[in-house]
C-alpha cells in the first residue's frame, strides 16, 4: 500500500537523520579533538562511555557500532578508530574510575565500621562494596569483549581493507582476550583458596571474600 511505503520511508529517513547526527558529532571527519570538546553532544556521548556505570558504555557504543556498519559497508578507518576509542573508554571507565571508586568504598567501609568487629566491615563490603552489582558488571565485561570482536569481524566487508592492519589488530585483540582469560583464572584461583567451597554455588559468589577478590 502507498501509505505503508510512505510510513516506511519516513521511518528510514528519521533513522538516517539520527545516524548522521550522532556520527557527525561523535566521529566527525573535519574536527580535531580541541573542536570536539566544545560540542555538547560529543561531551554527552563521551561522558556516557567513560562513566563507571555497568552497561551504559556498552549500550551507547553498541548504537554507534550499529550505525557504522548499517545500512552500508563501514569504512575501515572508522571501525579501527571505534575499537581504539572503545578500549580507551573501557580503561578509563571500567579501569581507572572503577578502581578509584572501589578504593573509596573500601575506605568508607573501614571508617564507618572500624570500631566494630571485622564481620561488620565484611558486611559493608558485601552490601556496598565495588562488586555489589556483580551481575551487571559481568554483563558489561562480556558485552565489551563481544563488541570489539563484532567490529573486527565486520572489517573484511569494509570498502577498503588493509591486510596488514587486519593482522595487527587481530593480534592486539587476541592479546586482550588472553589477558581477560588470565584475569578470570586468577580470580578462580583466589576463589578456591579464600572462599568456603562447601557452600552452594550461588552462595559462593555472594560471599564477602569472593566480592573482595573480584
- Helical segment tally? 10
Report the order of strands and helices: HHHHHHHHHH
The main β sheet shows up as: none
Low-confidence stretches: none
Distance between the termini: 57 Å
Helix content bin: over 70%
Mean pLDDT rating: 77
Based on CA inertia axes, which overall geometry fits? elongated
Gyration radius, rounded = 22 Å
Strand tally: 0
Structural class: mainly alpha
Strand content: under 5%
Task: Give the topology, please.
Layout: H1 2-26, H2 33-36, H3 40-50, H4 56-69, H5 76-113, H6 118-128, H7 134-153, H8 163-194, H9 201-204, H10 208-213
Give a nutshell description of this structure.
The protein has 214 residues and is mainly alpha-helical. It is 77% helix and 0% strand.
Highlighted features:
10 helices, mainly alpha, 77% helix
Describe the structure.
- There is one protein chain.
- The chain is mainly α.
- Helices cover 77% and strands 0% of the residues.
- The protein has ten helices and no strands.
- The longest helix has 38 residues.
- It is elongated, with a radius of gyration of 22 Å.
- 16% of the residues are buried.
Amino acid at each position: 500500500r502507498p501509505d505503508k511505503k510512505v510510513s516506511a520511508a519516513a521511518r528510514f529517513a528519521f533513522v538516517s537523520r539520527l545516524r548522521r547526527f550522532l556520527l557527525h558529532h561523535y566521529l566527525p571527519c573535519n574536527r580535531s579533538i580541541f573542536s570536539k570538546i566544545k560540542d555538547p553532544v560529543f561531551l554527552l556521548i563521551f561522558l556516557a562511555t567513560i562513566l563507571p556505570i555497568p552497561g551504559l558504555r556498552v549500550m551507547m557504543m553498541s548504537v554507534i557500532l550499529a550505525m557504522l556498519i548499517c545500512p552500508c559497508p563501514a569504512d575501515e578507518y572508522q571501525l579501527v578508530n571505534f575499537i581504539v576509542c572503545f578500549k580507551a573508554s573501557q580503561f578509563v571507565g571500567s579501569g581507572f574510575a572503577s578502581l578509584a571508586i572501589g578504593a573509596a568504598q573500601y575506605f568508607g567501609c573501614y571508617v564507618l565500621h572500624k570500631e566494630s568487629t571485622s564481620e561488620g566491615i565484611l558486611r559493608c563490603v558485601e552490601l556496598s562494596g565495588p562488586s555489589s552489582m556483580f551481575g551487571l558488571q559481568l554483563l558489561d565485561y562480556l558485552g565489551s569483549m563481544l563488541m570489539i570482536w563484532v567490529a573486527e569481524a565486520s572489517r573484511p566487508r569494509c570498502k577498503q581493507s588493509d591486510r596488514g592492519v587486519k593482522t595487527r589488530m587481530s593480534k592486539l585483540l587476541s592479546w586482550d582476550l588472553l589477558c581477560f582469560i588470565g584475569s578470570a583464572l586468577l580470580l578462580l584461583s583466589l576463589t578456591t583458596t579464600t572462599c568456603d567451597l562447601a557452600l552452594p554455588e550461588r552462595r559462593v559468589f555472594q560471599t564477602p571474600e569472593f566480592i573482595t577478590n573480584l
